[in-house]
């Protein structure tokens, strides 16, 4: 039994460790625990048992993102939590901006824009796009620039 087989291994080694162990010790049954999508990706059919329930999909050869999302339950694994939050806040902002139909709504949107700017001010493209959408909505409502 090996707990967290992947713990100190580079991802490239994680991809090879199971095959290496089974080649070196063909008559040994290994029971390993891991949270590594790289190890899961390297397994053959029937080598994976999930403690959370049955695995319905084929996992061998899938992308790391697919394994993390479909098997391990990680939502949008290609993005950091901060980047995901940034996108979600932008979507909320755009939806609220779309619904704005009076000056008070625009004032609220300007406050939201200020909050987002303060939080993600290190990303000028993000701010510029949010600000441009605000300016477009303001012009659409006849408030001018």
In words, what does this structure look like?
With about 140 residues, the chain is an all-alpha fold. The protein has helices spanning about 10-25, 35-40, 65-70, 80-100, 105-120, 125-140. It folds into two domains: about 10-70, no CATH class; about 80-140, no CATH class.
Distance between the termini: 67 Å
Helix content: 55-70%
How much strand? under 5%
Whole-number average pLDDT?
Answer: 84
Which class of secondary structure composition applies to the elements?
mainly alpha
Uncertain runs? none
Could you give a short account of the major beta sheet?
none
Per DSSP, the total helix count is 6
Features:
0% strand; mainly alpha; 2 domains; single chain; 145 residues
In short, what is this structure?
The chain is mostly helical and 145 residues long. Helix content is 56%, strand content 0%. The relative contact order is 0.08.
Topology:
Layout: H1 11-24, H2 37-42, H3 64-71, H4 81-99, H5 103-119, H6 124-140
Helix pairs in contact: 4-5, 4-6, 5-6
């Amino acid at each position: 039994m090996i707990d967290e087989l992947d713990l100190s291994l580079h991802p490239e080694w994680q991809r090879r460790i199971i095959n290496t162990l089974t080649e070196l010790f063909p008559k040994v049954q290994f029971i390993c625990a891991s949270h590594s999508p790289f190890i899961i990706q390297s397994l053959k059919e029937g080598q994976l048992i999930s403690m959370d329930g049955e695995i319905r999909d084929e996992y061998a050869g899938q992308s790391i993102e697919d394994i993390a999302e479909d098997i391990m339950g990680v939502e949008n694994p290609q993005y950091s939590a901060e980047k995901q939050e940034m996108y979600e806040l932008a979507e909320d902002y755009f939806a609220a901006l779309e619904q704005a139909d009076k000056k008070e709504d625009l004032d609220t949107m300007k406050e939201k824009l200020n909050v987002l700017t303060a939080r993600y001010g290190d990303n000028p493209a993000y701010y510029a796009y949010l600000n441009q959408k605000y300016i477009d909505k303001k012009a659409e409502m006849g408030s001018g620039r």
